[in-house]
Design a protein that fits this description.
This protein is α/β, with parallel strands linked by helices and about 400 residues long. The protein is built from 16 helices and 15 strands. The strands form three sheets. An eight-stranded mixed beta sheet has the order 1-5-6-11-10-9-7-8. A hairpin with a 6-residue loop joins strand 3 and strand 4. The protein starts with a helix and ends with a helix.
Length: about 400
């Protein structure tokens, strides 16, 4: 009977796919990362916020795209009967916070757990620890340029070379404006986005054959655009290849100029940069510049950093520009080195026979060692001893407590 109980317990300990414990050294690394990166963000003027894990879906998903809605666990509030959601992203909550408290230019930062219905990528977590930075109330590309400065400062803080991060830059407003100019219906626009996501050039060619000549020219150009050479691209490089109607459009000209300015600034910071105007993830949510950061070529198909421009709403229900980025701190654990602890163990036998005065002295010695950064373990049983220790705190010949390094004569 006991064997059956043991088997059942082991089954109860099985975690869902995409859910994992963060233990011991990794847990310490996670906290070290959190503290270090939040220090950088707050030093740049970002104010720390900590929204609740659950909210009514009216506010949590009011501005969300379909992907985020699918990623959100939903349940009924037992007190009110209203539908609630377990957040899958913190940005919608920042939108709500800024809508209530925002005025002028506001900077927000956070490190919060999010929960997703499905993992992102083959080995992605469903419970990532999300760090983010958001700026509200800035018109134009200056907010994104500032965010890149902060991003490189974060990389520098953990000792990750800036050149190891490859940034893909896009601008959803270019695709959106081309659809308007060429009167592309929503179904065709959806098909185009799906094809761009798959990088399926034969499918794109086939679909473009059904479009007007100028539309065909422009949408094929987006997929074949190559701005990834060593030279710095210019606005004219792209405009010269667009159809006449599109190249004269002021909105497209402004969007392309923003891409060029962001790419130029990123390269000046030492980042590797590519341009992909067909990067339309979050198309129904983002309103302008989008960027994804990848660690090294071929190291991961999943972005470490995701960011872009979106629309906020003020207390007066007026449109409010916003932009930001987020990353999963768990993806950075491999890049963090912790200083090894000096572990001191108090001699158990001497602890049992110590006088009142010696125990009082021991308490002072332990406090001093711990203040110096040592780990001091005061055992509660004979077998309460770590496998690896650096020293033993014991009573010496002068009848006082002193540390004997285990390498001395142990």
């Amino acid at each position: 009977m006991s064997q059956i109980t043991k088997t059942d317990s082991s089954q109860h300990w099985l975690l869902p796919d995409g859910v994992a414990d963060v233990l011991f050294v990794d847990a310490q690394k996670q906290e070290a990362l959190r503290d270090a990166l939040l220090f950088i963000l707050t030093a740049h003027g970002y104010r720390l916020v900590s929204p609740p894990l659950i909210e009514y879906t009216d506010s949590l998903l009011g501005h969300a795209d379909e992907d985020l809605k699918l990623q959100t666990f939903k349940f009924i509030d037992q007190k009110t009967g209203r539908l609630m959601g377990l957040r899958a992203d913190v940005t919608p909550q920042i939108l709500r916070i800024d809508g209530q408290h925002g005025k002028g230019v506001n900077r927000y930062c956070y490190v919060e757990q999010v929960v997703k219905t499905l993992p992102q990528g083959l080995f992605g977590l469903r419970t990532p620890l999300q760090l983010g930075a958001e700026i509200f109330g800035v018109q134009g590309i200056e907010a994104e340029l500032s965010l890149l400065d902060v991003l490189t400062a974060l990389l520098d803080e953990i000792g990750l070379p800036v050149q190891d991060l490859h940034l893909d830059v896009g601008h959803v407003a270019i695709f959106d404006r081309l659809c308007q100019l060429h009167q592309i219906d929503s179904q065709t626009a959806g098909e185009l986005m799906a094809i761009y996501h798959k990088k399926a050039m034969p499918e794109l060619s086939a679909l473009c054959q059904t479009l007007q000549p100028m539309a065909k020219e422009d949408f094929l150009l987006l997929a074949g655009l190559d701005w990834c050479g060593d030279g710095v691209p210019t606005c004219d490089d792209f405009l010269g290849k667009l159809s006449k109607q599109s190249r004269q459009d002021p909105q497209i000209m402004t969007a392309i100029d923003e891409v060029i300015r962001l790419v130029t600034h990123a390269r000046s910071l030492g980042l590797q940069v590519g341009i992909d105007i067909t990067e339309l993830s979050g198309y129904h949510y983002h309103t302008g510049i989008v960027f994804n950061g990848y660690l090294g070529v071929g190291q991961s198909s999943q972005a470490l950093v995701r960011g872009g421009r979106f629309a906020g709403v003020s207390k007066q229900q007026q449109a409010r520009n916003a932009t930001g980025f987020s990353m999963d701190l768990n993806r950075l654990l491999a890049f963090v080195e912790l200083q090894e602890d000096t572990v001191i163990w108090v001699d158990y036998e001497q602890l049992q026979t110590a006088t009142t005065e010696q125990k009082a002295d021991l308490a002072k010695q332990i406090k001093t060692l711990q203040d110096e950064g040592c780990v001091v373990i005061k055992p509660i049983s004979p077998d309460d001893r770590p496998d690896e220790i650096d020293g033993v705190l014991e009573i010496d010949d002068n009848q006082t407590w002193a540390v004997r390094l285990v390498g001395d004569d142990c």
